[in-house]
Amino acid sequence: MKIEVPEYIKSIVPYPPGKPMDELEREYGVSNAIKLASNENAWGSSPKAIQAIQDALTNLHRYPDGSNFYLVQAIADKFGFSPDEVIIGNGSDEIIEFLVKAYVEKGDEVITSHPSFLMYQKVVQVRGGVNKVLSLKGMGHDLPAILENITDRTRLIFLDNPNNPTATAIPPSDLYTFLSKIPESVIVVLDEAYVDFMDPGMRVDDFSLIRNSQGRCGVVALRTFSKAYGLAGIRVGYGLMSSEVANYLHRVRQPFNVNQLAQVAAIAALDDTEFYEKTLQGTREGMAWLRKEVEKLGCTAYSSQTNFFLIDVKGDAAALYEAMLYKGVIIRSMKPYGYSSVIRVTVGTKEENSRFIQALGDCLSELSYVS
Ligand SMILES: Cc1ncc(COP(=O)(O)O)c(C=O)c1O
């Protein structure tokens, strides 16, 4: 084969997903592995969503509803938007792709932070766009540096709010001031994958930002069913935006981009307040307990507006990650992101959290990180 591939495709590094549990069990000879590495929902999925999936199984010979009519309606009703301001994606990942496909031409610039969610830069690269990547300041987005880096070629700015992996959120007043300074020709994408876990006082008013765009930059909010709603495996997320932006995104999506089971599951999950509240409460309690326990072990826990948090283990994070695998516990090392002694851990169930603390204590002693 002698087929040329563009240089910007050759240089893409595949996204590194968290290690799957069965792979760990096979490779490390451990059993009952637990995964606290991908910020998933420890309490499973909404029982109502599972029931809805079961009820829909007899209809799989039909194509899904390409307009996502009922799911769009349910989201619009719940959050006070109009259906033409809602886009559904095969995970919110897919809406990131739609935005880049619709707005970024070869040579156009997209501003992101480092570290932040890795998918933004990847899809920009696929499109031949130019990634302008700015370091976080402390643990948060450096808004003044972002403003300084806007040029005539800037099309999109991605802000994961809260940020993954640092779990910090932008104070709303800082964000409002920042947005008021962005040129009209730019869209700011607020990726709110973890919005459900935020302190209410830290949440921004997406509705007024999106509706009051006259004379201002565009704002798109991205949300997902993968975290608080427990549906990561079925892939469904949504975006809230002006009908003008939504109209363009509809043009670049596949006609049946969201499968039938995902649509019914998401509708049911939206309505399952009991499961949603159980997740939030379990996360709050688990986070408080874990933070206390890791501090007792001599580590430092960073604050969090999400269902995960960073821990400074006071030693090499990559070695600790590896040692934890032998105990059957999958976490993330932040060393590849430039935080050499920091790990990222997702809050699990009570049992998972206890196993994590036990394994962490053992590994810290084995590696002689803390006395
Ligand atoms: C900040 C952020 N945005 C988006 C996503 C992707 O979500 P989805 O599962 O809806 O594609 C993730 C997943 O971890 C994330 O951390």
Q: How much beta, percentage-wise?
A: 15-25%
- CATH fold group of the largest domain: Aspartate Aminotransferase, domain 2
Radius of gyration: 21 Å
Q: Largest sheet, if any? A: 7 strands, mixed
User: Largest beta sheet: what is the strand line-up?
Assistant: 2-8-7-6-5-3-4
| SSE class | alpha/beta
Q: What is the N-to-C succession of helices and strands? A: HHEHHEHEHEHEHEHEEHHHEEHEEEH
CATH architecture of the largest domain: 3-Layer(aba) Sandwich
Shape: globular
Low-confidence stretches: none
The CATH homology group name of the largest domain:
Type I PLP-dependent aspartate aminotransferase-like (Major domain)
Ends: how far apart?
58 Å
Ligand inventory reads:
pyridoxal-5'-phosphate
The total strand number stands at 13
Helicity, in percent? 25-40%
Tally of separate domains = 2
Average pLDDT: 96
